[in-house]
Amino acid sequence: MNQPIDNGGDGERELFARLEADLTGLDGGEVLDLAKARTGRGGETPWLIDALDSTGSPEGSSVYRTAPDQDQDDEEGEGDGAAAPARPADPPDLPKPGITLERRNPIVPEWLRSKPAFVATAQHTASRWGYTAAFHSIRTPYYGIRLAGTAPVGAVRFLKATGDWVWDRDMAPLRAAAVKSEDAGEYMMLTRARDRHVRWRTLVWLTATVFGLVLALSMYVLAPGYLLALAGATVLALGWAGQRPDKPVIGPAVVRTELEKLTTSIVLRALGSIGNAAINKALAKGGEGIKFTSEITRDGPGYRAELDLPYGVTPDDVMESRKALASGLRRKLGCVWPAPNPDSHEGALVLWVGDRPMNETKKPAWPLLKAGQVNLFEPVVFGNDQRMAPISVTLMFASVVVGSIPRMGKTFLMRLLLLIGALDPRAELYAFEFKGTGDFGPLEPVCHRYRSGEEDEDIKYVRDSLLELKAELTRRAKVIKTLPRAICPENKVTNQLANDRALGLHPIMVALDECQKAFEHPEFGGEIELICEDITKRGPALGIIGMFGTQRPDAKSLPTGISANAVLRFCLKVMGQPANDMVLGTSMYKAGYRATMFSRSDRGIAWMVGEGDDPRIVCSAFLDAVACDTVVVRARTTREQYGNITGHALGLAPKTDAGPTHDLLADILSVVPVDEEKVWNEKVAVRLADLRPEVYGGWKGETVTANLKPFGITVQDVWGTPTGGGKGTTRRGIARADITTAHTERKRSESGG
Description:
By secondary structure, this protein is of the alpha+beta class.
């Protein structure tokens, strides 16, 4: 009984026969049919796949067996085929989806389908040929002198070659071989052939020599221009023949290093080098392979390959290994840009491989540099992608966050977006830059409010300007609420409403570069932060665009109320995951969208989130201060014609009474009695609203917390009971002593004590 049993039919019959023999003669014994018994057990485990169909197909066949009724009587139908027959898991009558997906290859080549691609190709070709022509034209006299110097060597080589030809020295090895082999017949035949060659070649040589001398004398005596040109050409030809092979007189104008043409084998080699187990399995012998969904084509200054990744692999997996992919392609990191295919499924990859890194490729000029206006409600070109194709952005109905380490182009990007706003003659600009270097300076002639610096008076100017905006937010909300549904169906500013100057719903752009300087100010920071959060949350629907830039993306520089509600996000180079996700959004780093991959030379290159379904690599157009001045002059002229030169552009400062002023610390001390050592922040908010409703109306407990941060006051757990009675509990609150200390220190600092 210890012998191995075959799983096939013969093994079963042998086992059955053996059991039948062993059980013969036993009282009350019964022979059990194993096949029927096993069929009956199928009803006990309905979730198991039967490895054998009715024809004995091997394990792994697409067959499943349905179980009999679980509640049937165990005594009924013993071995009478209670189990249902096996059925294939892939029924032949399963209907098709009824949809045929097709992809049509473009009739016109990719580089002819878009103006940027055509311009890039034409410019590259014209530039190369133009440079080559200029290079050799300037060096032509030098080439003539060098070739004249090598002409004697060429003449000697020419005479030697002529002598070898006349005396038929090419056949000398054959004659020597005939002598060595003592083949007299072969030698005599070769000798006669040499004599014939030498006779007529000597005649040709003598004739050419005589006429050559006569021609030379004629040139010397007559010296017509064309003969001199012929003589010069002869000298140059001899010089060309006399140059050294390893050091030619006329060298290449452009030394080119040939890049490999992108092919399917190179792409597969690169994908196999990134260390993805599913990809390696697909590429291994017997694997399903990787399917290219279209031909590899030229796309701008590079190649485009589209393929379907193995099941379970996404483009994000490839993007995470971009450096290894670049190594497999033998390209610089800035040349390799894998991305999802927005027109296909989640496993479709578009691999674009550039000829040069993005930061070394000549970028197209900004289309609005010399002419054109802007409608902020419509997409506007502000830069390009890796393929040098134009990239547009829609600024209306969005708040913007821009983050990077210093010197990567963050301020230039914000200035470009403000220039876009300046070219919409309806727009009102608020430009605040806290580095104090005047990077927004070119925009001064078109700004309603402008400030550069981080001193107390600068921050106060910004606070007063933002109080104007706060009042404008309230006014606009009231205006929109009163408009009929037919005019304002979605309760937000539209292009038509912005054109109605009587409503005053024109676009407003406010930009704070190095915004952390304003948010951290001890006196005005909390108030500025609250207004900016309000702009971020309510502003887009009311026609107000907020832009916030920082070189230190963290919770203090970008408060949650701003970072969580910004729609457009631009992340240039940052140093780590926290800063990356603070700008682009939670888990973006994990998903493969990493601004840490940019190098220090990738200035102006960023991940853009919010314009379209997927993040994109973009590079903003570069406009220096001189180019900005040119655009601003045109924008100022357009605004003068429209009648929209206001505020700072007219030399007017913000009204100091644009909003109610207050002293938060003094107000808290006035609403918290001396005998109340600690109090909940929510109670403080209610009391402040009763004291100054025009200032503190709508404040909550967390509002009090945020506004006390600039004074160095932290909240703590405070025991108390709700107003009107109730069960005591612990909530976030403040100690009155901390408020008193901060108020006293501020007064002492203001008095110079």
